[in-house]
Design a protein that fits this description.
By secondary structure, this protein is of the alpha/beta class. The protein contains 13 helices and 13 strands. The chain has 2 domains: 153 residues, Aspartate Aminotransferase, domain 1 (Alpha-Beta Complex), CATH 3.90.1150; 249 residues, Aspartate Aminotransferase, domain 2 (3-Layer(aba) Sandwich), CATH 3.40.640.10. Helix content is 44%, strand content 12%. Strands 2-8-7-6-5-3-4 form a 7-stranded mixed β-sheet, with helices on both faces. It has a 4-stranded antiparallel β-sheet with strand order 9-10-13-12, covered by helices on one side. Strand 3, helix 6 and strand 4 form a beta-alpha-beta unit. The longest helix has 40 residues. The protein is globular. The structure holds pyridoxal-5'-phosphate. The site of pyridoxal-5'-phosphate (PLP) has 14 residues, from helix 5.
């Protein structure tokens, strides 16, 4: 059969591999210093704890259930463990408020599917997590800009804009802790403002808490869901849908995340999970439970110390090597630093040149903007930046940016 493009549903129109993806494929070459991939350092995976955890899951009496189909809600002891942790953060919930998903990415897909009809509007920050845009895009939405810290539009203006583009404003999506890609954390006041806006607009908030546990300094800020519960007295009366994940702390390869929200939303997500993949792998859920009970706190301490130091090194190198006119965020946690270049420097062109001449990689920022802006921004990930490469890599990048700036004059 030929001409596949003509046969796809309209929702497939926005599913395209970017040129940047092609460029980033080159990163396997050993001489490239990469600040591109936003992934955990595999040297920090708790492999021994998982070896024991899988052995336990497959031990006598457990092997049958571990290898069997299981319920769509997820493994109850794992949900209980998550509920306890969330309660410590001020999210008063029980296991009926939690569904296990295959990574938080699956949760974003389900939430797009649950809330967005074609031409509805999703409110997202600019920049926002690219994977969220990819997940939501399949449901053919429009986007409007959430600017909690810089002053949102009024609720009426958001609603009017959504109506003009043929649908309704359906939710606000935000990554409030050490965001991907900007590395920024939403202040307590901004979280309250966002809740005010969502209440006035009467829309849900999707709180993507992927990096929540990875704080290296500064004071913890309560999750938006905790603030929502404090306002409304009960999780079942809240509008915030909290997405968590084990990917950034224990392992992304097991593909385990969760959603915590009011029971009606969870019940709907369970039905969606049943229809899509029945449940997340039973044995992985059991092994994750054992590993989490065993070493979660220890693991978090280790990650905080290693990643915190890597962040410090990259920030110090930026200070040392970046020319005037370049600015960057100073994240209190997570994996990312967001760099703003002078207006006329294009991040994508800079990447092509950087790979060719300096052998340094990063992600150009434009793809993280639903409206195509942000051409003069780039994302640096420090999660894999060992002491040696942080200094060398940023020195080379600084040299290239100086060079490009001098050419522009
Ligand atoms: C902000 C954010 N949300 C969600 C995810 C998805 O993670 P996972 O599906 O592995 O839980 C990521 C991964 O990079 C992320 O950065």
């Amino acid at each position: 059969m030929s001409n596949w493009e003509a046969r796809y549903a309209t929702r497939a129109n926005r599913m395209r591999a970017s040129e940047i993806r092609e460029l980033l494929k080159l990163l396997d070459q050993p001489d490239i210093i990469s600040f591109a991939g936003g992934i955990p350092d595999p040297a920090l995976f708790p492999a021994e704890a998982f070896r024991k955890a899988y052995e336990r899951a497959l031990s006598d009496g457990q092997a049958g259930p571990a290898l069997q189909y299981s319920v769509s809600e997820g493994y109850a002891p794992l949900r209980e463990w998550i509920a306890e942790r969330l309660n410590d953060l001020g999210i008063t919930c029980g296991i009926d408020n939690i569904v296990i998903t295959s990574g938080s990415q699956q949760a974003l897909d389900y939430l797009g599917k649950l809330f967005l009809s074609p031409s509805d509007t999703a409110l997202v920050t600019s920049p926002t997590y690219l994977g969220a845009l990819q997940a939501f895009n399949a449901y053919e939405p429009n986007y409007d800009r959430l600017a909690v810290d810089q002053g949102n539009m009024t609720p009426a203006a958001y609603h009017d804009a959504a109506a003009r583009s043929g649908g309704r404003a359906k939710f606000a999506y935000i990554n409030p802790d050490f965001s991907n890609p900007a590395g920024e954390t939403l202040s307590l006041a901004a979280r309250e403002q966002l809740l005010d806006l969502a209440e006035e607009m009467d829309i849900p908030i999707i709180e993507d808490a992927a990096y929540q546990g990875l704080r290296y300094d500064g004071d913890a800020v309560p999750p938006i869901l905790a603030l929502d519960i404090a306002r409304n007295g009960d999780i079942d009366a809240t509008r915030t849908i909290y997405c968590g994940t084990f990917s950034k702390t224990l392992s992304p390869g097991l593909r385990l995340g969760w959603v915590c929200a009011a029971k009606p939303v969870i019940r709907k997500l369970v039905l969606m999970k049943q229809a899509a993949d029945l449940h997340s792998p039973t044995i992985n859920q059991m092994a994750m439970y054992h590993a989490a009970v065993d070493i979660y706190d220890e693991q978090i301490e280790r990650l905080r110390s290693v990643y915190g130091r890597r962040r410090d090194n990259v920030l110090a190198a930026l200070e040392k090597y970046m020319p005037e006119g370049v600015s960057w965020t100073r994240p209190e946690g997570g994996m990312f630093i967001w760099v703003t270049l002078p207006e006329d420097i294009d991040g994508a062109k800079l990447l092509a040149r950087s790979i060719e001449t300096e052998r340094v990689a990063f992600v150009p920022g434009q793809a993280f903007h639903a409206d195509g802006s942000g051409t003069n921004t780039i994302r640096l990930s420090f999660s894999l930046a060992s002491d040696e490469i942080a200094d060398t890599g940023i020195a080379r990048l600084g040299r290239l940016i100086r060079q490009v700036m001098s050419e522009a004059i």
